[in-house]
Write a structure and sequence with these properties.
Length: 396
């Protein structure tokens, strides 16, 4: 007689058993992030999205800092130095709640804090990183301009030397956390090439205006930064980098978080569609019993599985041998594109209810329209991959 133990019932959200590839410590990180999102984000996020505001951003930043999520993959200066996979799992759970919440964390840690940690002086690190890691100080990253997004080398923001000081003039646009930040990492053209500057936001001449009337990332603070003769000491410049490799190194860190986070948004939409298909009846039976609905659900599950496996593979690589830019582009391009498709398909399963904020689907769908194009548009990531395949740069 066979004594074989029956196989456990399949988890509809993890048909491939990806969870079996995670360590107990990684699962504990994921559970801790999910717990704080369940308590501090999910009960309020639909209201925040509808009102177009994130009123609790300072309190939320401190709570996320207490959990160790701000700069969690950085080492020293109050940062816990956790693994790339830990950070990715955190991003997935944060974006399962909302892309705006993941943006708060990734801009803080992977853009502003990473720039200071990798390219900053010892003085800059000691002054800002502990406060940013705890959430007592919020940071932003000023690269994109009104007329220059995918082509940052053409930025118009300039920094000129004046005696022993630097003087900055220019405008930055679509800056997450900008109007609530205590510090901005601002990139500007100089006679020495592109330089980064650590700018306290209370410096005279620095202003930040919140951008309103957004239909995406509504539960996120997005701002315009204006710098008018902002005078900074020589010590404000990031000393360890010149040229575009400085901001691009930071963007690669943020893109890595996005390729995980987008799978969180996809999982949330898929979960909602799967539950709805089991509850909604038409023609005398749940719509999940019809072949066309099952085809949609099956394809969504395949893409969610593929994207999550790709994220985990890239995370393991980042923790061991590191990632090349084209590998990050591969992940960001695939996962955000597929996540958006999953959300759109989920919307069709929910029908008219799919556009209601009673469900998370339309919120994730709208958010991913922004995630698709920020930190590199699909076109730019396609060309990064194309250059890696052919050896030919086709950006111009």
């Amino acid at each position: 007689m066979s004594t074989k133990t029956p196989a456990p019932k399949a988890d509809p959200l993890d048909l491939a058993g990806i969870d079996d590839l995670l360590s107990p410590e990684e699962k504990a990180v994921r559970a801790a992030v999910r717990q704080v999102c369940d308590r501090a984000v999910d009960p309020y996020i639909a209201e925040w999205f509808e009102s177009g505001d994130l009123p609790a951003i300072r309190e939320l930043a401190r709570e996320l800092g207490t959990l160790g999520l701000l700069g969690m993959h950085l080492e020293g200066y109050g940062c816990p130095g956790m693994s790339a996979v830990d950070y990715g799992l955190a991003c997935l759970e944060l974006e399962a709640s909302d892309s705006g919440i993941r943006s708060l964390v990734s801009v803080q840690g992977s853009l502003a804090m990473y720039a200071i940690r990798r390219h900053g002086s010892e003085e800059q690190k000691r002054e800002w990183l502990p406060r940013m890691a705890s959430g007592d100080a919020i940071g932003c990253f000023g690269l994109t301009e009104p007329d220059h997004g995918s082509d940052p080398g053409s930025m118009r923001t300039r920094a000129r030397r004046d005696g022993g000081d630097w003087v900055l003039d220019g405008t930055k646009m679509w800056i997450t956390n900008g109007s609530v930040a205590q510090v901005a990492v601002v990139w500007a053209g100089t006679d020495e090439g592109v330089r980064g500057f650590v700018v306290p936001t209370d410096t005279p001449g620095f202003t930040a205006r919140a951008i309103k009337h957004k239909m995406s990332l509504r539960a996120s603070v997005t701002s315009e930064l204006v710098l008018e003769s902002v005078r900074l000491p020589a010590s404000a410049a990031l000393p360890e980098v010149r040229g575009l490799r400085g901001p691009l190194s930071c963007l690669n860190e943020a893109r890595y978080g996005i390729l995980w986070g987008s799978m969180g948004a996809a999982r949330s939409a898929f979960r909602a569609a799967l539950a709805y298909a089991g509850e909604r009846s038409q023609f005398g039976r749940p719509i999940g019993g019809f072949q066309l609905t099952q085809a949609k659900l099956a394809q969504m599950a395949v893409e969610l599985t593929n994207g999550t496996l790709l994220a985990l593979h890239l995370g393991r690589r980042k923790d061991t041998v590191g990632l090349r830019p084209e590998q990050v582009s591969l992940g960001k391009l695939n996962n955000v594109t597929k996540a958006l498709e999953i959300c759109r398909t989920a919307r069709t399963i929910l029908g008219a209810n799919g556009i209601s904020l009673e469900y998370p689907v339309i919120r994730h769908m709208n958010n991913l329209e922004s995630v698709l194009t920020y930190e590199g548009t699909p076109e730019m990531h396609t060309l990064v991959i194309g250059q890696a395949l052919t050896g030919q740069a086709a950006f111009r």
